[in-house]
Every structure is written in C-alpha cells, then in structure tokens.
Amino acid sequence: MTLLVISPDYASHLLPLATLATAWRDAGERVVVATGPATDGIVRSFGFERVDLQLGKGSNPGVIRAEQQPAGEDDALRGFFAATRRGMIETLAFQAEARLSDLMWQPVPTARAVQRVVAEVAPDEIIVDHLAFSARLALTAASIRHADVVLGHPTALPVAGEVYGYPATWPAAFAPDAADLTALRQLCERVSDSFTAEWNAALAALAALAPALPPSVSAFEEHGDLLLYNYPAELSEPARTALLPPHAFLGSAVRDEPLDPEVEEWLASSDEPFVYVSFGSFLSVRSDVLARVAAALAGVGVRAALALGSADRSELGELPASWLVREFLPQVRLLQAAAARGGAAVTHGGNNSVTEAMTAGVPLVVLPFSTDQFAGAAALERAGFAEVLDPNAASVGELAGALARVLGPVWAGGEPAARLSALSASLRASGGAERARAAVREWVAAAR
C-alpha cells in the first residue's frame, strides 16, 4: 500500500502532515511526499520518499525571512509583517487583499503537475493540505478521491454563512469597530467571489478530465471526500460541528523529536517551573512583542526557554543567563517538560503550537496576530485554557499579570486545569496519526 502526502514547501505545514503519515510508515507501508526542495530534509528525517512538486512561489524550511524569499514574495512578507503592527482588522484586510492574487499559483500548470505525480506514484490513498488549493483543484478535476487535512482552526473551511478570511469569533481583548468589520466582511466576500471565479476558470481548463463536473458555487467551501481536522473535537463548538461535512477530529499531530543535549542539560539544571515562548516560523519577526514578553517574564521571576526564530536578539535587551535562548528549540519536548513542572507557554496561537500545548496539558498566554489565530484564541479563552491579549496593545505589566495567573495556584487548583488535564490525557491516549489512518481506512472501506 502507498500513501501520497501533498504539502506546500513550508515546514509548518509539512511537519504535522508528515507526523500523521507515520502511522502508515510504522505499519510497513510506503509513504511518498510531494513537496518542494526546501523541506527535503524534513521529508528524509521521517524516512519518506520525496517527489518534487512546487505549489507556490515561497518556501520555508523552518524559519522564514523576507530576504530569503523570491522577488515579490519578499515585499509581500514585509507588507504582512507591517500590517500585524497596525492591528487585527488591518492584518486580516492585508491578507484578504493578497488572496486576490496568490491563493492558486499557476493553477492549471500546477494542477497538471499534481495529476502527473499521482499517475507516477499510483497511490492507494492520498492526504492533502487543505490550503494546497491547486492540488485539491487537480484532484477534484480528475475525480481522484482524497482526504483533505485542515491544519488550522476548523473555520479555515467556512460553513453556514461564514466567509473565508473573516473571523467567525475573536477574543475579548480585541474590540474592532463595527464599520471596520463591515468593510472587512465585504472585502472577504469580494475575495471569495474572485477566488470562486478563478477556481471555475481553472476547472473549465481541465474539463477534459471531468466534463460533467459542475462549477463551484463557493470555492472556499470545496473540500475533499473526507475531512481530517488537526484539532481537538473538545474545542469545537457542538453547534458548528453538527454542520460539518464527513470528517474526523484528529486532536493533534505531535511529532517525535531527536534528543537535544543542550536542552536536556538546561532542563536538568533546575526543576523549577519555566515558560516556553515561541511565535512560530513567521511571527517571531515581531521582536518588539518578544521584548515585552521577555521583560514580563523577568518581572515575574520565572525561567524561560525562548525560541527566537527570525527575531533580532539585540532588540530583546539583556536576557537572564539562566534562560535557554536559541533560534530553534524542540517545541514538543519543552512543552512536555513545562507541563510536568507546572509551567506555561506564550504563543501566537498557531495550530501546531496550540494543539501540541493541549496535548502536553500546558496553559497558554496567547497573542494572536493573524488569520485563524483569533478564532483559535477565542476557543481557548472560552475553555479557560488561556489568557489572551492583543500583542500590539498589551503592556509589560499586563503580560506579567497574565503570566502570573496561568502560573499561579488559582489556575493549578481550578476547574479549567482539571479539564485541560483530561483533554491532555485523551489526546495522548490516541494520537493524531493513529486517528488519521483509522479514519482513512474506514472511509476507504465504506466506499468499496
């Protein structure tokens, strides 16, 4: 049996997809990953085969920097980073405007390349990143059955009147103006109409493969034959879950990490609680926010493990010698250790960070910047698993207060802590990889 995994050339997308595929690998089956060259090392680290497939102009092997992107992509990244400094509405509007031109890179040639890969690999099963729109277009046009993995918050696939790019909900720390929200929704609706027209034009160009296929009414609502949500079902609102197409919640895709001697030595140097800090591969560029977080941590008097990413360390001021500070840190290991010691984590609210923290049982301070991070942070806030602040507005004192609350005895002895512990136990008892393979096998068997 052969599983084909289709992923953009971005580490943040490939890592969870590859982790899910380990269930096939561990069962002795062949796993082939179709992606670009930047993430070749990640593919090989999992022991998978790679076939070359370029799904977009940009790439990210682990930490993204504007100056390392192709011409045009670099300016787009700088524009995005600048928008995050202006706020929630401005960032979402910038991303919506960008989607008018960058969601499907060369859709017809890319779709044909995907179809060639499928023909060459001849897979028995296919899982594809939901945001790999050109790849899903190719599979849809050729009526190739596939499982579609939603790696972000479930609202990445809109249902029941939701509009892609417009937050279905957001945390209490954000109070956007009603007129600004109306303008943002209108923009997102225009983007949705434009994207649907682009999807249908590409579908028509590929019509020889599926001449009877009707045009899409809303391309952002298109999905694979089976939906796999890399997200805990326990955090999804029941009323919304009832509206979803055939699906399975995987919980999380927590990967194995190689032993890091420096990290182990740091962990062995003290058994006191510590806070893990990471803004992921993109948003670590916000050195100004990391500097305030660092000052708050120093004020609270707690050790920190800080993943710098692309941040400029010189902008963070003098950091305590007892901290672990590196560009890249083993997130899964540090979250597990933080949970065992009554620690916490500070995050931008990306899907990998959130799901891995929930699996470890770590309370969070979330500073959402963009996309579905707002909806994800709101879900954590509702559950009582996180303190959520506006990254642009939160003062050092407010950050210190939030940290003190998630590290304090009230949190540790409270009802949300007990529920987070139960969620963690459930996610650890049945991993996302095993859930994914079981769901795909059940779906394939039912289709026979």
UniProtKB/TrEMBL annotation:
Question: Among its keywords, does the record have Repeat?
Answer: no
Q: Which InterPro entries match?
A: UDP-glycosyltransferase, UDP_glucos_trans
Known SUPFAM superfamilies for this protein? UDP-Glycosyltransferase/glycogen phosphorylase
Q: Which segments of the protein form a coiled coil according to its record? A: none
Which UniProt keyword terms apply here? Glycosyltransferase, Transferase
Q: What is this protein called?
A: Glycosyltransferase
